[in-house]
């Protein structure tokens, strides 16, 4: 009998993993999940109820874990190795970074390191309203563009800034916040269309995509907005309605994601781990300017 089956959710995205929890860290199961992640973009382990230790074991089996602890506000907790995603003021003194998750994004795009391969969340406390996490396949989005649009965008480069992903949070950003967001991240230049090592192409977009090189600000942002809307069409997206103990893994290199807003005092809590990517996609803007 096979230990694991992965049931597709939609044609372009989503997979439900059926596996006995005793076998979840077996080599062949982890390998099957790694493969399925490429094809499905997001994998759901319904009511897995992993402890922190089990989540860490699975994460470490899956790939090289990146620790955000200490570098991202809210990262400091009882368990140093998991990042707690919550708006709860007692755990998270700087909710801005989590409020930024209300908008389409990819993780770790404005850090000068290989783009994180996968993000993993365990549901520890659900929100009574909102809180669905939504995923959009940017592989499917690119593949299904008309050929002439593919050609028009194939060689474009985009400047990504953390400040851009924080703009939707403010009417006017306080100067102190502006300073903090610019000093803690790196302005990164990434290709708009990413040809990955297996030859498949995906879009690298999200709120952090601030400026298309060689275009006016308005034209570039309009292009990013159109591609974001295109990618978020129902055929390419999966919306996850969380249940207690669900564990979800997504391919951060081919999926953008966001969460439907939830109340900041509802106690919603997700425990996050991250897998390091293998490809250094872009370069810091400074490096190009100095070249
Ligand atoms: C994240 C994220 C979404 C959520 O942790 O990177 O975007 O549903 N989380 O909390
Ligand atoms: Mn995220």
CATH superfamily: Clavaminate synthase-like
Number of domains: 1
Order of helices and strands: EEHEHEEHEEHHEHHEEEEHEEEEEH
Question: Which molecules other than protein and nucleic acid are bound?
Answer: N-oxalylglycine, manganese (II) ion
Q: Report low-confidence residues grouped into runs of 5 or more.
A: 74-78
User: Percent helix among the residues?
Assistant: 25-40%
> Which CATH-level-2 architecture?
4-Layer Sandwich
Give a short account of the largest sheet: 8 strands, mixed
Structural class: alpha+beta
CATH topology: Double-stranded beta-helix
Number of strands: 17
What value does the average pLDDT take?
Answer: 94
CATH secondary-structure class: Alpha Beta
Q: What oligomeric state do these chains adopt?
A: single chain
Shape, please? globular
The gyration radius over C-alpha positions equals 18 Å
What features would you describe in this structure?
With about 290 residues, the chain is of the alpha+beta class. It has one domain (about 5-290): Double-stranded beta-helix, CATH 3.60.130.10. Helix content is about 25%, strand content about 25%. The chain contains 9 helices and 17 strands. The strands form 4 sheets. Strands 1, 2, 3, 4, 5, 6, 14 and 16 form an 8-stranded mixed β-sheet that branches. α1 (about 25-40) links the parallel β2 (about 15-20) and β3. The model is unreliable at about 75-80 (pLDDT under 50). Manganese (II) ion binds near residues 101, 107 and 257.
């Amino acid at each position: 009998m096979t230990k694991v089956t992965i049931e597709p959710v939609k044609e372009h995205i989503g997979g439900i993993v059926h596996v006995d929890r005793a076998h979840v860290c077996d080599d062949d199961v982890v390998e099957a999940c790694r493969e399925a992640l490429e094809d499905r973009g997001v994998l759901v382990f319904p009511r897995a109820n992993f402890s922190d230790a089990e989540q860490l074991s699975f994460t470490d089996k899956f790939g090289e874990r990146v620790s955000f602890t200490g570098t991202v506000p809210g990262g400091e907790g009882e368990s140093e190795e998991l990042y707690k995603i919550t708006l709860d003021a007692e755990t998270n003194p700087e909710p801005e970074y989590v409020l930024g998750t209300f908008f389409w994004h990819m993780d770790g795009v404005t850090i000068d390191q290989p783009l994180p391969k996968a993000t993993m969340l365990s549901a520890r406390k659900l929100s009574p309203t909102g809180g669905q996490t939504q995923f959009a396949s940017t592989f499917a989005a690119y593949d299904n563009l008309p050929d002439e649009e593919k050609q028009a965008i194939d060689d474009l480069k985009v400047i990504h800034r953390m400040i851009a992903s924080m703009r939707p949070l403010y009417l006017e950003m306080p100067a102190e916040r502006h300073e903090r967001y610019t000093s803690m991240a790196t302005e990164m230049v990434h290709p708009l269309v990413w040809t990955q090592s297996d030859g498949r192409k995906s879009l690298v977009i999200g709120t952090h995509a601030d400026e298309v090189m060689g275009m006016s600000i308005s034209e570039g942002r309009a292009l990013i907005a159109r591609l974001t809307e295109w990618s978020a069409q129902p055929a390419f997206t999966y919306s996850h309605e969380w249940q207690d103990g669900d564990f979800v893994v997504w391919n951060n290199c081919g999926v953008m994601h966001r969460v439907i807003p939830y109340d900041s005092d509802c106690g919603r809590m997700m425990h996050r781990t991250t897998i390091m990517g293998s490809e250094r996609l872009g370069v810091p803007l400074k490096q190009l300017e100095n070249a």
